[in-house]
From TrEMBL:
Xref: Pfam families: Ribosomal_L31
Protein name stated in the entry: Large ribosomal subunit protein bL31B
Keywords of this entry: Ribonucleoprotein, Ribosomal protein
Top-level taxon of the source organism: Bacteria
Assembly and binders: Part of the 50S ribosomal subunit.
Gene for this chain: rpmE2
Family: Belongs to the bacterial ribosomal protein bL31 family. Type B subfamily.
Organism expressing this protein natively: Psychrobacter fozii
Biological process per Gene Ontology, one example term: translation
Gene Ontology, cellular component aspect: ribonucleoprotein complex; ribosome
Gene3D superfamilies hit by this protein: Ribosomal protein L31 (4.10.830.30)
Length: 93
C-alpha cells in the first residue's frame, strides 16, 4: 500500500442533534471537535438528521397539503390580482 495517499480511516462519533442519538462508526470525516463517549475520546461530528430522525426510517408522516400548487398560489396572492382588476374597472368608467 502506498503511503500518504489514503485518508485517515478512524472511529468517529456522530450525533444526531434532532433525535439526540449517538452513533459510533468508522469514517474518513475530518473534524476538529472531540467528545468522550463510553470512556473513550473520539472525533465528534454533529448531524442535523440521520436514520434516527428521518421520517422515512421512523415511519412518521408529515402533513402535506392536498391542494395543488396553483391553488395555493391563488389562495396566497389572489387578493392582489383582485385589487388590480378593481382599479382597472374604475379607470375604464
Amino acid at each position: 500500500m502506498r503511503k500518504d495517499i489514503h485518508p485517515n480511516y478512524q472511529e468517529v462519533l456522530f450525533h444526531d442533534t434532532n433525535a439526540d442519538v449517538f452513533f459510533l462508526t468508522r469514517s474518513t470525516a475530518k473534524t476538529k471537535a472531540t467528545r468522550e463517549y463510553e470512556g473513550t475520546e473520539y472525533p465528534y461530528y454533529p448531524l442535523d438528521i440521520s436514520s434516527a430522525s428521518h421520517p422515512f426510517y421512523t415511519g412518521e408522516q408529515r402533513k402535506t397539503s392536498t391542494e395543488g400548487r396553483v391553488a395555493s398560489f391563488n389562495k396566497r396572492f389572489g387578493a392582489f390580482g383582485g385589487r388590480k382588476k378593481a382599479a382597472d374597472t374604475d379607470a375604464a368608467e
